Amino acid sequence: MIAAPDHVLDYPLATDGDIAVINLVSAREQSWSRFWQDPQRPGIAEYIVEQEQLTAQYVGDMTALDRLETLVNHLERVSIGAMRTALIHARVAATAHRFAEARVHLTHAESRGAMPADVQRLKLSIDQACGTDLESVLEVRQRMAAESGRLEDLVPLGSLLADLGDFDEADRIYDRALREYNDVSPFAAAWVCFQRGVLWGELVPETQSSHAALWYRKAIEYLPYYVKARVHLSEIYLQSGNVGGTYSLLVPVISSGDPEVSWRLADVLLAMDNFADAGAQMQVAQLGFEELLSTHLLAFADHGAEFYSGSGKNARRAFELAGINLANRPTLRAFEQAYETALGAEETKAASELLVSARSRWGGTKAFGLSSLAQINGSSQK
Amino acid sequence: MSDHVDGPRSIGDPSIDLSDLFAFTSPENPGRTVLAANVFPSAGVSAIFSNVVNHSIVVRRMTVAGLGEAAKFKPGDQEYRFNCKFSPLERGADGSKPVQKGTCTFPGGQELTFVVNDEKGASTPDGVFRIFAGLRSDPFYLAWLVAVLKKFPNLLQHDNVLSIVVDFNTKRVLEPEKGPLFGVIAETFAIPQPRSLIGHEPPRFDWVGRPEQSNMRLNNPAMEHADDVRDLWNQMTPFALEEEFRPIFRKRLLESLTNWDMRDGKADWTPQALAAVTDVYLDDFLLFDVSKPTTDTSFFEIEKSTLHGKPYQTGGGRTVNANVIDIMLTWMVNNDREFLQGGATGATKPGVNTFPFLASPNTQIQTAVDSVELAASPDKVWALIGDFGAAWEPLIATINTAGTGIGQIRVIEMIDGKRIVERLEEIDNSSRSYRYAMLVGLQVTDYTGTLSVAPKGTGSLVQWQVQYWADGQPDIVIKTVVTTLLRTSLESLKARFGAS
Fold this sequence. Notes:
The complex is a heterodimer.
Chain A: H1 17-37, H2 44-59, H3 63-75, H4 82-95, H5 99-111, H6 116-130, H7 134-148, H8 151-163, H9 167-179, H10 186-203, H11 209-222, H12 227-239, H13 243-250, H14 259-271, H15 275-295, H16 297-309, H17 315-328, H18 332-344, H19 348-362, H20 366-370
Chain B: E1 18-25, E2 32-43, E3 53-66, E4 72-86, E5 101-105, E6 111-115, E7 122-123, E8 129-137, E9 144-145, E10 150-151, E11 160-169, H1 170-174, E12 181-190, E13 204-208, H2 213-218, H3 230-234, H4 246-261, H5 271-282, E14 286-289, H6 301-307, H7 324-334, E15 366-374, H8 378-385, E16 396-402, E17 409-414, E18 419-428, E19 433-440, E20 444-456, E21 459-470, H9 475-497
Helix pairs in contact in B: 4-5
């Protein structure tokens, strides 16, 4: 494993993050206005999907998923063409992690003449998210990245390499994406920085928190309202005892409504011995998770499992949600989470079965060799 | 669209996407010239400029270097550059609304700082230059489905753009006595940073000369399988297209113009004439002559006359109200044999004769949408709510109707005493939906609502959508009233039919 560099150089310049978010919201609202005036306007529904995806990813506004559902429900009532409708349905379903449904719509779109490139791009994302046929996905991702050299092709390749345990190459790809980035949207630059934070802070076998923190901070510098980056950085700050820093990090994004913010804030308040406010925030977090799970179960099952196996303190709910996530996308990480939650819920038989399944599906891969599951043998299980 | 969203990379940050360029004699003062460039197609009402991008309008003196099939316009070396940069948002100390400031550097080096969206703009002390930057109604209109050349309502109706408008003393700045013909382009490129100075020019994101070079000629929507060369084109150097790339773009333009010529099934252009037009288009700048009048119909006359081997008669250029799309299409499709009028005869709002010449921004249509999933079948739910006169909403005290079918009126007394009058505009029992208009009630314009029931799983989905133009009251007040009405009403259905 390569060592993390001591500091980060050569950041691309980007439009101020506050301006970019204002412009995203502005453009998104205008797109909806155009859509409601004429839903059949060429390209408008597709553009809304892109804008809502950006909103969910970078602004932590999960109501974007509700708006996308409104979009597809409305498209059912107007005639924009079966192919377009199916492709948009597939994109929306994939955004909400309803991958099986997305594949069905994608097949419909393909049979109705969707452009092969559009179909392949989404199919790759779904396969990657589900851990399906990753060697083939890798081959295509590498070819696409070599041909285009564009950030939007490089980052998914880096992410896949990280999933496959090839961390050195993943880091090199992220580095290339950032160095060769020649646009000014801060979303893309912040995305790469966030991915590098995850790589150093969560994926490599020996995590390097300080280096991960540096990348998360850079992501936030690009995009001050990047909720996910703030949440991930807050975990590192809290682990290192930086209670004040964690609090300052989370307070500006409470208004996002993301329950992870309330959860982490509850942890901070607990560390500050502010038990009353911590309890209130934890309640908000739980209500928030349950609301999201009630409407977008598959999109938030893994997050819910993480919450309930941690401060949410409901091992059975965690196990249930982790199982739902695993059934939806049997990635190695999903197996790891399901196994951990099974142990937490004292479901030792289920844990053993999960281990067997994980070995059967992932046992021959490099990633499995680096996984915590690889260190477990049958007799050492609880 | 003119140059709207003209390449995949511009989608990342729409505020760097140049859409249109205008050059015309000031309607306020014939001794002044106006140049305007628009960015951020379909900008929302809160849109602002990127703070890391140079927005330049660049003018060069031109000479006619060839006539007829050898038509050619040759740019001079001297450049007149109007360059604008914008600040990050500046928050007022007293909590007032944040503002953005801009700084424009004019030919000769004068600098002027101004506030974005200040309609009065700002002027240099000597009065030579005046500038405005901010949100305006998009003056461009495109009323065709260009891939199939079918008339369509204006695709940019109610759209806004971010505009930069420069108005200046023509004689003092352009010295027309040295030659009155000019070419102008607009470009956006990154403000140089240390990293970029090592071996690289700052990347150019976009540039625009004549309208529709990118989206209709280089990327002809009817040529489905042609590679998208727009991002490559956007990185070319204006006024000096690199020789190595000329053959690529010449080939594409010729193929595209040939395709346009045959859109009506008739060949109106000879191969030689098409080749000559291709070479004119390859040198992409907007031509204007400050010694002759610019009018709403003078756009492209300089090029046409020169290609016809005649002296041009007008100032060419492009006014805010010029119908450039129909002028261009008529020329490309039938060589001016028969005017092709699209599905609209003007933009959402026409340009105005006073600074900053582009009309005030359009307000945004407001929409409230809500839905509920119910356990009951669509027919069962529709049997209740499909009756326009039924009082099923909990916030309604009484409801009285007059008439039947389309045109039926309902007079609603809300539980807070408010009176609302609505008219049924459309009803379709087979698809279980109706549309109505509010005649009296809220202080809004063109309020319409659509209520529909569709199958969803084993039950049904009720969707209620309302749209209106805010008119007077702060929109948050109206929005709260409308969203509360929708939510409360739809929630009440759960009790009747069970939640899905």
